[in-house]
Specification:
The chain is an all-alpha fold. The protein has a single domain, classed as Tetratricopeptide repeat domain (Serine Threonine Protein Phosphatase 5, Tetratricopeptide repeat, Alpha Horseshoe), CATH 1.25.40.10. Helix 1 runs antiparallel to helix 2. The radius of gyration is 12 Å and the shape is globular. The relative contact order is 0.14. The mean pLDDT is about 95. This is Tetratricopeptide repeat protein.
């Protein structure tokens, strides 16, 4: 299964209320995905899920995602929107 499909699986799990399954799927994806847009998107989704029950881990994941975006440099509109979501979550903690 491609990384994009694994991310979609995690999103479907989260939509169905299986947050622990979604977190496990995202962590598995992150363990095998190099720095890039897919990794950033997975980190921000994971941070969003963690935000409800593990604020400290959510902060770490979201901060790492924003740092990765900075390292990537030239980003597209999707990553810019994801970065904005990460900043909103961090500001609400």
């Amino acid at each position: 299964m491609t990384g994009e499909l694994v991310l979609q699986k995690a999103l479907m799990q989260a939509d169905r209320g299986d947050t622990s399954g979604a977190e496990a799927t995202l962590r598995s994806l992150l363990s095998t995905t190099p720095a890039g847009a897919l990794r950033v998107r997975a980190m921000i989704v994971l941070g969003d899920l963690l935000h409800t029950h593990d604020v400290h881990e959510a902060r770490r994941v979201l901060t790492d995602a924003l740092a990765t975006i900075e390292q990537l440099g030239d980003t597209d509109d999707l990553l810019n929107a994801e970065a904005e979501r990460a900043r909103e979550l961090l500001a609400s903690q």
